[in-house]
Amino acid sequence: MTHHVAVALVGPTASGKSALAHSLAFEQHDQVEILCVDAMTVYRGMDLATAKPTRIERSEVSYHLLDLVAPGEEFTVAQFQEVARAAAADVWRAGHKVLYVGGTGLYGRAVLDDLVIPRQFPSVRALLDERAHDELPALYAELEALDPLAASRMEATNARRIVRALEVTLGAGRPFSSYGEGLATYGPTRVVQVALQSDFEQLDLRIASRFRSWMDDGLLEEVTSLASAPGGMSRTARQAVGYRELLRHVEDGADLEACVEDAIIQSRRLARRQRSWFLRDPRIEWFDDAERARARLLAVLNGPDGYVRD
Question: What are 180-192's pLDDT values in tens digits?
Answer without folding.
Answer: 666 778 989 999 9
